[in-house]
Amino acid sequence: MEVKIQHLGNVKFAAIARGHRVVCDQPPANGGADAGMTPPEFLLVSLGTCAGFYAAQYLKLHGLPADGLEIDVSAEKAKAPARLGTFRIEVTAPGLDERHEAGMLRAVQACLIHNTLLNAPAIETVVRSAVPA
Predict the structure, then answer these.
(1) H or E element at residue 78
(2) pTM over 0.90
(3) Which of 109, 116, 110 lies closest to 43, judged by CA?
(4) Could you say which of 4, 8, 52, 128 would form a disulfide bridge with 71 (CB–CB 3.0 to 4.6 Å)?
(5) What angle do CA 22, 79, 119 make, to 5 degrees?
(6) Which are the contacts of 76, defined by CB distance < 8 A and separation ≥ 6?
(7) Cα–Cα–Cα angle for 59, 60, 62, rounded to 5 degrees
(8) In the sheet where 4-9 sits, what is the strand order?
(9) What is the pLDDT of residues 111-127, one digit of tens each?
(10) Partner residues linked to 78 by β-bridges
């Protein structure tokens, strides 16, 4: 899995994966033009859409309707070091029978991004100086 990030000027970037492109920017208060979501917002999008995928799969597996399925994700900032310290995922599945709530919870908690955040991955950072061609 790989994503390429291109600097578009100022604090604006493009992220490209498998031919898809999204723009990341900052609000004016942070020196941007507000042309896209911020990196923390993309993290919430990743967590929420992953949770949504697992929720939809659970509903499909059990022959339940997915109409109106919504996922809300929020986070609170923490300091020292600066990071998102707490996340909340709220899944709304209209008409979900109480008998399926625990199963839906297990399904959503099996999400790849959820598990990645719970079990800190190793991150290798490499800085390279471009060599003129």
Answers:
(1) strand 70-78
(2) yes
(3) 116
(4) 52
(5) 65
(6) 84, 85, 86
(7) 65
(8) 4-9, 12-17, 20-24
(9) 999 999 999 999 999 99
(10) 83
